[in-house]
Design brief:
The protein is mainly beta and 507 residues long. It has 2 domains: 283 residues, Glycosyl hydrolase domain, family 43 (Tachylectin-2, Chain A, 5 Propeller); 186 residues, Jelly Rolls (Sandwich), CATH 2.60.120. Helix content is 0%, strand content 48%. It contains no helices and 38 strands. The strands form 8 sheets. An 8-stranded antiparallel beta sheet has the order 4-24-27-37-29-30-31-32, with no helix packed on it. Strands 25, 26, 28, 33, 34, 35, 36 and 38 form an 8-stranded antiparallel beta sheet that branches. 47% of the residues are buried.
């Protein structure tokens, strides 16, 4: 039996397929890299990271956090994953470059080959038809269906290109998040929207007997799992080897992010029925093709004891992702220490390169780490953060003649998703002079029922002591990612300093 949600972490915009007995899920990663994470499961309940599609995307200044640029709230969104003629395909648009990318590989962990599809296709979904024609369904409010050329490089000349669904009436969010399928000879498009005056995500489905026919349908799910009026919608559907069907959708859960939910699907008169009596069940029984399989956790402590491969490259655990594209020349791992060296001046945490992150976990989680600041320069910061747009952190700060410990937080003006973006450096709420360059720090976060608070601590001979204020966390479109634990170092006065991180413990 599974208790929904199936994953208590930020894996938004899921799309899912099955290849023989194995399920694969792809999820949005936006500005973190390696990007476009792929998860693997044998029962639709337990998941592990199978890999990432790319280490870097285009290497633009924004993707590298150069010249005061960044791609927060942008990057890759809402990928589509498909398996066709013994090859995997992953397609997505990137909101910073305005391009649509198609990656393909013969193996899920293999070398993904990259190409572009001419045009920008928001929330696109790929369909390989039985006659080898290929289509993209995409858009917001107006949902388009476009036929691609046989090389998948762009729209097919004189091919199908039309609007198949259009939002009507009053709405807060027009139809988007397309997932396109051919099932039992009919064509189905699944969409997310928020109709009416209030904000509440809903799942919708439209069906046509032919690729050029009329698509008809409507809402198929409007439920919140009894959680804070947060609707469950947007994701893929998939069948099991036994012929059962499920949807993998997401639900907003405040600052922790958007987390996947498993929904049983039945078919009545060739139309999908989601849930049981219109509700998402808390408990779901699914079958595993490999009941003895041990999944690798989606979060992890780390002693940073890594060995380079034959080419001298260090590969971090898959649970780690950098904030934006890392600079490989200025981070390293040796003797159980992850080290960041500064190469530019920053005015705030969001400009720092090589910040190393992990997803946080609902309902509560903690992370602690030891920091060695002996090689920091005056004006340098090194610490651990509850990282999102309204971040808070505790850090070592190198002063002129001593070392300080500071807690910094950024105040938000309102709780709205689309509220004013606040790009300031945050406020220093407490500073303590300390006698050592070494310190152990901790962040504790409570997400339960959208409490969304982080507290910060440092270790003393008498145990943990809180520093600064309790930081309120808000999920907003400035980052559009759930809160992450983040290890960081940056310089405000002179470059070249460094800090080391050891014994990271995730609880």
């Amino acid at each position: 039996m599974s208790i929904n949600p199936i994953l208590n972490m930020d894996f938004p915009d899921p799309d899912v397929i099955r290849v023989e007995d194995t399920y694969y899920m792809v999820s949005t990663t936006m500005h973190v890299m390696p990007g476009c994470v792929i998860l693997r499961s044998y029962d639709l309940r337990n998941w592990e990271i199978a890999g990432h599609i790319y280490d870097s995307l285009d290497g633009t200044k924004g993707q590298r956090l150069q010249d005061k640029r960044g791609i927060y709230g942008k990057g890759m969104w809402a990928a589509s994953i498909r398996y066709h003629k013994n090859k995997f395909y992953v397609c997505f648009a990137a909101n910073d470059t305005g391009k649509t990318y198609l990656y393909h590989s013969h193996t899920i962990s293999g070398n993904w080959k990259k190409q572009e599809i001419e045009g920008f296709y928001h929330d696109c979904s790929l369909l390989f038809d039985d006659d080898d024609r290929v289509y993209l369904v995409y858009g917001n409010t107006e949902i388009h269906l476009t036929e691609l050329d046989r090389n998948l490089k762009g729209p097919k000349e004189n091919g199908i290109d039309r609007i198949i669904v259009k939002e009507q009436g009053t709405y807060r969010l027009g139809y988007e998040g397309a997932h396109f399928y051919k099932i039992h000879g009919k064509y189905y498009v699944f969409l997310i929207h928020s109709s009416g005056e209030e904000w509440f995500r809903r799942e919708a489905c439209f069906v046509s007997d032919s690729i050029e026919g009329t698509f008809t349908g409507g809402d198929v799910l409007a439920d919140d799992l009894n959680y804070c009026h947060q609707g469950i919608a947007q994701g893929g559907i998939v069948d099991t080897p036994d012929g059962e069907w499920y949807g993998v959708l997401f639900q907003d859960r405040g600052a922790v992010g958007r987390i996947p939910v498993l929904v049983p699907v039945k078919w009545e008169n060739d139309f999908p029925v989601f849930g049981k009596h219109g509700r998402v069940p808390e408990r779901i029984e699914t079958k595993s093709s490999r009941p003895e399989y041990q999944y690798t956790p989606l979060f992890s402590s780390d002693d940073f004891q890594y060995l380079p491969d034959k080419n001298g490259k260090i590969s971090l655990k898959e649970v780690w992702e950098f904030n934006h594209q890392p600079d490989s020349l200025h981070w390293s791992i040796a003797d159980g220490e992850f080290r960041i060296q500064s190469d530019k001046l920053c005015t705030k945490l969001e400009e720092a390169v090589n910040t190393l992150t992990q997803r946080t976990r609902y309902p509560k989680c903690e992370a602690e780490v030891t920091i060695n600041g002996s090689d920091m320069n005056v004006g340098d910061y090194a610490g651990i953060s509850a990282f999102l747009g309204c971040f808070g952190f505790v850090a070592l700060k190198k002063e002129e003649d001593h070392m300080s410990l500071v807690m910094v937080g950024k105040q938000e003006e309102d709780e709205s998703l689309n509220g004013k973006k606040n790009w300031d450096a945050g406020t220093e709420y407490e500073k303590i002079r300390i006698p050592s360059d070494y310190v152990r720090l901790k962040v504790a976060i409570d997400f339960e029922y959208k409490k969304d608070e982080a507290e910060f601590f440092y270790e003393t001979a008498k145990g943990w002591k809180k520093i600064g204020r309790t930081q309120k966390l808000y999920f907003k479109m400035d980052h559009f990612c759930g809160c992450r634990f983040a290890l960081f170092m940056y310089s405000t006065r002179v470059t070249g300093g460094s800090a080391g991180f050891t014994n990271f413990i995730y609880t």
